[in-house]
From TrEMBL:
It comes from Faecalicatena faecalis. The gene is fsa. This is Probable transaldolase. The keyword Phosphoprotein does not apply. Its EC number is 2.2.1.2. The active site is at 85 (schiff-base intermediate with substrate). The lineage of its organism: Bacteria, Bacillati, Bacillota, Clostridia, Lachnospirales.
Length: 217
């Protein structure tokens, strides 16, 4: 399983990129709004940091296929690595079909069922984004959905990649890797949490203490 970072915060993207662990970025309208910056400006800056797929979502106020197609074409023009993120609706599927047929990469988002993922794949989506954490929030096991989609895609020979989204903690990461996600898009704080283990910290302290006891500082 590969990692994308799920944020529009440039400092966090730089930190994760410097660690060498991410190969793409996902954003959404809430994450862009949180930064309070112009969409095109922040996205262009992100493309200059990470050399991999960068998902930029159509505006939350654009709900018809024609509008999403027009916006998607503009997003695709920002950089060759751009992926147009489209919500899972009938209009979104129509937009996905047209943009995909033009060779524009798409990420169908807000996936909460295996059937939605299957429809998005058949509409030509490059990626589908099932939202793990938001399902867990309503007492539905999000990782079960990832496993179902992975199994269906495997059986049907579908090449659409599964991005496990709405990842909230390190256990989610392990679980979606085991469930067969191709990618997990993870906020920076979770990447940071994943680096830690108390035995690693204790081991470093012991190595330092043993070395210093014999050789000094
Ligand atoms: C991913 O594509 C989504 O933007 C994101 O993972 C949503 O996460 P949240 O449910 O924590 O807002």
């Amino acid at each position: 399983m590969k990692f994308f970072i799920d944020t529009a915060k440039v400092e966090d993207i730089k930190k994760a990129n410097d660690m060498g662990v991410i190969c793409g970025v996902t954003t959404n309208p809430s994450l862009i709004a949180k930064e309070g910056r112009v969409f095109e400006e922040v996205i262009a800056e992100i493309t200059s940091i990470v050399d991999g797929p960068i998902s930029g979502e159509v505006k939350a106020t654009t709900t018809d296929a024609e509008g999403m197609i027009a916006e998607g074409r503009e997003i695709a023009k920002i950089h060759p690595n751009m992926v147009v993120k489209i919500p899972m609706t009938v209009e979104g599927l129509k937009a996905c079909k047209v943009l995909s047929s033009e060779g524009i990469k798409t990420n169908v988002t807000l996936i909460f069922s295996a059937n939605q993922a299957l429809l998005a794949a058949r509409a030509g989506a490059t990626y589908v984004s099932p939202f793990l954490g938001r399902l867990d929030d309503i007492s539905v096991r999000g990782t079960d959905l990832i496993a179902e989609i992975a199994q269906i895609f495997e059986v049907a020979g579908i090449e659409t990649e599964i991005i496990a989204a709405s990842v909230r903690n390190p256990i989610h990461v392990t679980d979606c890797a085991l469930a067969g996600a191709d990618i997990a898009t993870v906020p920076y704080n979770v990447i940071e949490q994943m680096t830690h283990h108390p035995l690693t910290d204790a081991g470093i302290e012991k190595f330092q203490a043993d070395y210093k006891a014999v050789f000094g500082e």
